[in-house]
Specification:
CATH topology: Archease, Possible Chaperone, Chain: A, domain 1
Shape: globular
Number of strands: 8
Distance between the termini: 24 Å
Radius of gyration: 14 Å
CATH architecture: 3-Layer(bab) Sandwich
Number of helices: 2
Length: 137
């Protein structure tokens, strides 16, 4: 597995991702979600278009669900794509980052309804943090 991969199940779609630290884990989760939404195309952020994201929860799983829900909200409601995430701090219960955004001209390739907690668990193995998340489609 590279830093993320997508997979399908009956009625859902998901991503598996990993990182050496929480910043890498969260960043690769976003990269996987972007691959689902927009394919593998890259786009440059707009210089003046950024947004701060801060979240404090009770677990890495809670951070992931809220982060990915924010990415979905940006895409579907604000027609913005998160193209770069500059992390100030990240740990097992919080994330403080600056989102670099770009306007999207077309709707995402897939219609994702929600991020789920179903079977979501962050584990550490051989120095890597790993997780997978399912999305309702």
């Amino acid at each position: 597995m590279k830093n993320y991969e997508t997979f399908s199940t009956t009625g859902d779609i998901g991503i598996r991702f990993r990182g050496r630290d929480f910043a890498g884990l969260y960043g690769n989760a976003v990269a996987g979600l972007n691959a689902l939404l927009f394919g593998t195309s890259t786009i440059q952020p707009e210089a003046s278009n950024s947004q701060r994201f801060q979240f404090k929860g009770d677990s890495a799983e809670n951070v992931l669900v809220n982060l990915l829900a924010e990415v979905l909200s940006l895409a579907y409601q604000k027609q913005q794509r998160l193209v770069a995430m500059e992390v100030s701090s990240a740990d097992s219960s919080s994330l403080d980052a600056n989102f670099r955004l770009a306007a999207i001209a077309a709707v995402p390739a897939i219609d994702i309804k929600a991020v789920t907690y179903h079977k979501l668990r962050v584990v550490e193995k051989n120095g890597l943090k790993k997780a997978s998340v399912l999305f309702d489609i």
